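Operator note (shift B, R.M.): manual run for Drug resistance transporter, Bcr/CflA family requested after the automated queue skipped it. Running by hand, logging everything below so the morning shift can see what happened. Input copied straight from the record, untouched. If output looks odd, do not overwrite the archive copy; leave it for review.
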Amino acid sequence: MQSSAKPNTPFALLILLLASLTAFGPLSIDMYLPAFPAIAENLNVPLSSVQMSLASFFIGLATGQIFYGPITDRFGRKKPLYVGLGIYALASLVCAFTKNVEMLILFRFLQALGSCAGVVISRAIVRDLFTHQETARVFSLLMLVMGVAPILAPFFGGYISEFFGWRAIFALMVIISTSCIVMLAIFLPETHQPDQRVHIKDSLKNYVQIIKDRHFMGYALAGGAAQAGLFAYITGSSFVFINLFEIPAKSFGWVFGSNAIGLIACSQINARLLKRLSYDVILEKIFVVLGVLGVILAMAGIFNWGFWGLAIPLFLFIAALGMTFPNATAGAMATQRKAAGSASALLGTLQYGIAALSSAAVSRLHDGTTLPMCAMIGFCGVLALALHRLLVKKAA
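Run finished. Output pasted below as returned.
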């Protein structure tokens, strides 16, 4: 380890803290998914309007990260974390009391601006502490711990919405974020001391230099396309499974959780494979799998193959992402030690920017069938394969 971390900080505790930061995104996304029909009914708006609050969250994640990069390189990792989580807590509180969908969409955007501090800075901290190959294994471990969020969040969200109302979900987010601020203040070491040489006004130049790095862009865009498939699924899943396949909202977590378990399992298989294989070898194979499964999912939507015809390839697609995310992230960050914060921010902006487009497309194309979700996932799988072949494999 190369860091200023306290030597008595246990590795397991460090991973748990980093995973908690990374989990704010999945927690904020997944917990309120089962409540979509209830929110639409309570605010008297179409379901597609509620789905736009999810798209606005993705837009916030994309735009916010670009600012946190140079800030965390300039001022260190912890102070920007406190600011971001504070914004998150306040926005969550407003969401809990909102009276119309427009306010929900706006403050979900602001909530995302706060949560993306954890997304950016956790990646930068990993890059501060570990070597290239080690980062892929650490990201796999983070996926294991943070994977609890997408498994448990829909369960809690479904039951909280049923027994206490959907607003209680956002009240819980306030409690979680404030508790996390306290834990970080006590246990998280500073891994990057403030650097007076970093000037915020030069951040655009830094981003331009990073964008010119074909190595970085290849991994970032291919990984982003794969991630967009995940968010197309997240956006459309509550309608598909609750409305079309008539699964009760409180039981939606079983479907969502099973797919998350597949993702976690593959991330741990990935961690073991990395002891013998490079992340490049694994990515070359797994992007082919995503492309094939994407075509199958598109066909399932076109020909209406029913619950199992959709659920099985969807499970395999989501599971395969457990081998995509950690390896693509490690590949993108491998050449960016000097500007790890800015590189992490740009990586997130690119990936969540693509995800926002995917989510908005599913909402915009909503037609009462499974096709918009399935077709978008299929497109993202094929696009991820094509980008990897063109930008990474050809450049090798």
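Quick read of the result: Confidence is low (pLDDT under 50) at residues 1-7. The chain has one domain: 11-186+199-393.
Leaving this for review. - R.M.
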